[in-house]
């Protein structure tokens, strides 16, 4: 392992280019927008989980999404990641990727990474093994488990470990980590794919106060190099990380603005915060 670490340290930022791989075209953010959702509705039978929702996320933005249970927050992430198809409306990643026409795998490869509510780390594997399992494989070598890592995976590993700050636990089985550490490991696994857009669904649910604070720091660090969409209920966490906040209720946008602005909004008080 130390080989990997030294190797990528020596090569600095130069890994990831060349090596004869065909470079994917990549998402086109030239208009400054990473994600376009236009008039998206999702129907489950006659029930509208999303109702004519339009949402634009700028490149480099950290958008927080709040709202009552059942508002459609997770469904929104399902639409972005291809797990659920919009019944009507369009969803684009950059100007060129029509998400409704792509598989979940293609969407992940295009640069959208998602952390689900529940951590899904491999408990019997160490922190390091979990990260390596999440690394992109060298596609020229058609073997699965521990087949050769793509060259850029070495750099991703260093960066990922540094960001989630689990270096001292790299040889610990993930099952022995605290709940918060498991969540960070899962974020680290997602970073191994070097996503451009990161979706986090209730990342601090069940965390201690200290873990929540650390997760806020992590989000702010991730913001330097990624576009983020974060769904959360924890208002002090939202207060720490948020710029623009979108409030969802009944599948539609109730309000948008700073946290202070949406908290002062009458509709939001009535339908979400309560009096
Ligand atoms: P949130 O994450 O904001 O709590 P969800 O997006 O999970 O809300 O759910 C929105 C609504 O859609 C809920 O009423 C939920 O029961 C419903 N729903 C979500 N997924 C499905 C599904 N696959 N089939 C039927 N109803 C669903
Ligand atoms: Mg949810």
TrEMBL record:
It comes from the Bacteria. The keyword Nucleotide-binding applies. PROSITE patterns: ABC_TRANSPORTER_2 (PS50893). Pfam families: ABC_tran (PF00005), BCA_ABC_TP_C (PF12399). Keywords: ATP-binding, Nucleotide-binding, Transport. Residues 35-275 form the ABC transporter domain. CDD domains: ABC_Mj1267_LivG_branched. Residues 1-21 are annotated as: Disordered. GO terms for molecular function: ATP binding; ATP hydrolysis activity. GO terms for cellular component: plasma membrane. Coiled coil: none annotated. Residues 1-11 have a biased composition (Polar residues). This is Urea ABC transporter, ATP-binding protein UrtD.
């Amino acid at each position: 392992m130390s080989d990997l670490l030294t190797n990528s340290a020596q090569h600095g930022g130069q890994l990831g280019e060349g090596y004869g791989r065909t470079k994917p075209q990549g998402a086109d953010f030239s208009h400054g927008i990473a994600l376009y959702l236009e008039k998206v509705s999702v129907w489950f039978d006659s029930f509208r989980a999303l109702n004519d929702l339009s949402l634009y996320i700028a490149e480099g933005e950290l958008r927080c999404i709040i709202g009552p249970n059942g508002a459609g927050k997770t469904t929104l992430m399902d639409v972005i990641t291809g797990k659920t198809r919009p019944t009507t409306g369009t969803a684009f990643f950059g100007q060129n990727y029509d998400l409704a026409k792509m598989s979940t795998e293609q969407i992940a490869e295009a640069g959208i990474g998602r952390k689900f509510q529940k951590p899904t780390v491999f408990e019997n594997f160490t922190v390091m093994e979990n990260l390596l399992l999440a690394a992109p494989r060298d596609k020229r070598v058609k073997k699965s488990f521990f087949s050769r890592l793509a060259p850029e995976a070495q750099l991703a590993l260093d960066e990922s470990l540094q960001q989630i700050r689990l270096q001292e636990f790299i040889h610990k089985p993930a099952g022995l980590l605290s709940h918060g550490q498991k969540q960070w490991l899962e974020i680290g696994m997602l970073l191994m794919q070097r996503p451009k857009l990161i979706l986090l669904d209730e990342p601090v649910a069940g965390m201690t106060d200290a873990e929540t604070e650390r997760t806020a720091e992590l989000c702010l660090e991730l913001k330097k190099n990624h576009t983020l969409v974060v769904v959360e209920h924890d208002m002090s966490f939202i207060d720490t990380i948020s710029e623009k906040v979108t409030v969802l209720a009944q599948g539609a946008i109730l309000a948008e603005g700073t946290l202070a602005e949406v908290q002062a909004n009458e509709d939001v008080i009535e339908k979400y915060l309560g009096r």
